[in-house]
Amino acid sequence: MRHLFSVCSLVLAAAFAAALAPAQDAAAKKPAELEKVALLRPSGSYADLPESGFDPTSLLLGGGGQPKAFFSLIEMVLDLTVQPGDNVLLDLSGGVGLNLAQHRELERAIARVHEAGKHITCYLENASIGSYQIAAQCDRVLLADMGGVDLRSPAMNIMHFKDALDLAGVQVEVTRVGEFKGAVEPYMLPTMSSHLREHYRAMLRSMNSDIVRRIAAGRKLATEKVLALQERRMFTAKEALQEGLVDRLVPWEGAERALATFRGNHDFELKDVGPREKKKKRRDLMSMLSGLMNPKKEEEIEDPEVVVMHLSGQIVDGSSPSAGSMVSGPTVKRLDKLAENELVQGVVIRINSPGGSATASEAIRLAIARLAEKKPVVFSMGDTAASGGYWITAIGQPILAEVGTVTGSIGVFGMRYQPGALMRRVGVHSEIVSIDDGPQMDAIDRPWTAAARAKVQAGVDEVYAKFLKLVATSRGTTPEDVDAIAGGRVWSGQQALENGLVDEIGGVDRAVAIIVEKAGIDADVEVRHMPQPSQLADAFFSQLFDAKIRTSDGGLLETLIARCGPFEEVVAVIREALTSDGKARIYALMPAGLRVR
Fold it and tell me: Which domain holds residue 326?
């Protein structure tokens, strides 16, 4: 009986096993689930506040793409922290253009990706210093075998216009305070003064220290070696591998195949977390007119929010918006509106400005002071916050800058164009009939008299004294101490911190955190960036005006604008000269064309 039971058990077990066999075979044949790898493909240039619209001349001549929204890129990087899987692929083959302040902001976002336990693999083809700074922060760097790395150190290219103006028969009359006010040197000297050159070099060294730190820490290289590599600058793919700049060379087959080559398998699936390709907008006449007649309205604030208010461009007087400029009238109205809105919990003032009109700067500063009386305000300096861009921060509230920020330039100057020689050359003579000598100051065909120059200088001195007093009060020091670091001197963010002009190194993320602490609100509060990019109509008419000037054949000053197109400070000053009544204007403006790249 016992033997019969054992036989039955064996038969039942065999039958059960036979029944399970098909299911087990099916499970064995089922393909394993592929590993999810998040993919981010940033490319092109990025701006804190991109301009909308288009260049009218591009309809005939073509043109490059518009800068993308930098803070949208930051959001995409932070989105990597919650993606499935532990691996991230960063494809930088398209090249990425960021300024030094943006690099520091991006560095903090990438650090948060690492803190989330993600491993980042970067793919490069031909890497500029901008792309490579990002790549150096990744766990491994793959470089296409026919590519290379360019470790160009930061530099500036400043154009001088004195000889061109002399050729044109145009003199520039200047009144200024401080020998370091480099904003007027391009109009007064054919080449840069030696003391200003050394001052700029010191600023570049300060900025470069942050680039070197970023690369050295990411690639585990000595600071001295990175500096030596910068001096060599250009590296082939093999040289980059030998010097420890990259981890492996891969065929020029794109990021996905590069990752597969590195892993030795293709058992992964990429998930693109980058921006989706937007449908291209029509550029025909009807669609343009439709955009002009139906401008996009900014969404109203309906819930408690922290606002990041972007103040960008050259500061100018006026009552109508102008694309690319910070116009005093519209800016003041927008700030006052934020002050009255109870749903706004606090405001980060994000500044990207070389300065401009002293009177416009003061109007905007007073509006920010009114705002700060109602709710917390913190300043975040971007790429540039100099001269008038620094003036508007002088209200005694926290100021944050990045190491690569260009700031300071505390100084003012008065300037006017005097084309007397040009007028005589073409046979034009101007007569002013007056009852006293006062109106003679406005004559554009002759220099100022000593008495007239003294009057203009007195006005410049008074504005400069006010600038020093505002900064001293804001920073808790004396005008004399501010004067020692002012006089038009330009500083990096790190130098500004050491000189007491800013409170700490940090970006928008840190500024928002300070607002949250000051306001005592939830750290997850909604953050809104304002304003939205300029309306198409504003951009269209502003660019149409510039295009008209640059294609005009009338007037050598107008021709000069065409040569100075990349330098917005020069263009703005010359544009004002075209409509000037001969009077000198007082500017709080950083040196023309002072761009670090």
Answer: 301-589
